[in-house]
Amino acid sequence: MKVMIDLCVIPLGVGVSVSEYVTACQRVLEEAGLEHQLHAYGTNIEGDWDEVMSAVKRCHEVVHEMGAPRVSSSMRLGTRTDREQTIQDKIQSVETKLSAD
Amino acid sequence: MKVMIDLCVIPLGVGVSVSEYVTACQRVLEEAGLEHQLHAYGTNIEGDWDEVMSAVKRCHEVVHEMGAPRVSSSMRLGTRTDREQTIQDKIQSVETKLSAD
Amino acid sequence: MKVMIDLCVIPLGVGVSVSEYVTACQRVLEEAGLEHQLHAYGTNIEGDWDEVMSAVKRCHEVVHEMGAPRVSSSMRLGTRTDREQTIQDKIQSVETKLSAD
Amino acid sequence: MKVMIDLCVIPLGVGVSVSEYVTACQRVLEEAGLEHQLHAYGTNIEGDWDEVMSAVKRCHEVVHEMGAPRVSSSMRLGTRTDREQTIQDKIQSVETKLSAD
């Protein structure tokens, strides 16, 4: 089963700057070879369910290893059986409609 | 690694009533033997990371099997290395402070 | 327009314990006279859209006033035009189905 | 108070394709003159709290007016009192760290 998620990882107990933790998670995704796209309040990730969730777990582990005693993430998860749809497809489908005005 | 999540599963393409799908997910959690607590906009679930995520995957699969071509969930995920904390602990810690007023 | 939300407020830069901030938010909801129900990973709140959102804003303000330089919340928001549904209705509708097994 | 949010609006009871509803919400944001950035699983929006929340309400209203009897959104909301930070700043801060490897 393919899944597209949107993940935002928040380390607690380590101050207000979270960019080094977000950067570490980006590296986890690159090492996992998963398609992903950073935005200002999370990251889109797509792939096989088990591979994606394994990367999410690794993100939590890495952020703890960096010193955060607590991690709270928020995530959206989308699956569909009617057809495949990539990160690019989803953005394209809205942009096409917008430019048709 | 232990995790506490809050999961809200939304089936798309099947009408406005989602309670039968939520009910099916509750059964998945019971069969998995995971501690869980339903509320009006999601379900708290706690347990071992892999067992919890396996149940989340099973929820998506079951909702698809029931006929929903698309499923979009939102989830919070909390892990901590400083100490263990159950669903009851978290609620208790706020209620104690509230009653101390 | 009525809305039901599920709100989880996370203060950053103040350590790992967040229960005193959650408690302060519970007081905001009580002072606002809004129907609400705490769970282990957030709070269900229902009422008129503007009143509910005004309370969410007040929660952010209060948590900042208590010393958190940064606040990151996650929220689900549900509105419907087909019928009214309370926090109790939603839970009841699943529990009735579960007990019918 | 400034806020940065990440909003994902899901119409229920209207089939599996949601792109026309997402497109309508993009127009709401443009008409409101709010800085925003679409991604594959939501939209980043930044601005004054009241203006941003007013646009979120308008999105729900518009999606109902288009025929969806039920709307369920998920949203992240970030506020900070220590400094201002734009959508571009947040992405830049991670990309700078990544490219420093």
TrEMBL record, chains A, B, C, D:
Annotated Polar residues bias: 88-101
Chain segments annotated as coiled-coil in the UniProt record: none
Highest taxon in the source lineage: Bacteria
Chain intervals for the UniProt region annotation (Disordered): 71-101
SUPFAM superfamilies membership: MTH1187/YkoF-like (SSF89957)
Pfam families linked to this entry: Thiamine_BP (PF01910)
Domain Thiamine-binding protein: 6-95
GO CC list: cytosol
Family stated for the protein in its record: Belongs to the UPF0045 family.
Name under which the protein is recorded: Uncharacterized protein (TIGR00106 family)
Source species: Marinobacterium mangrovicola
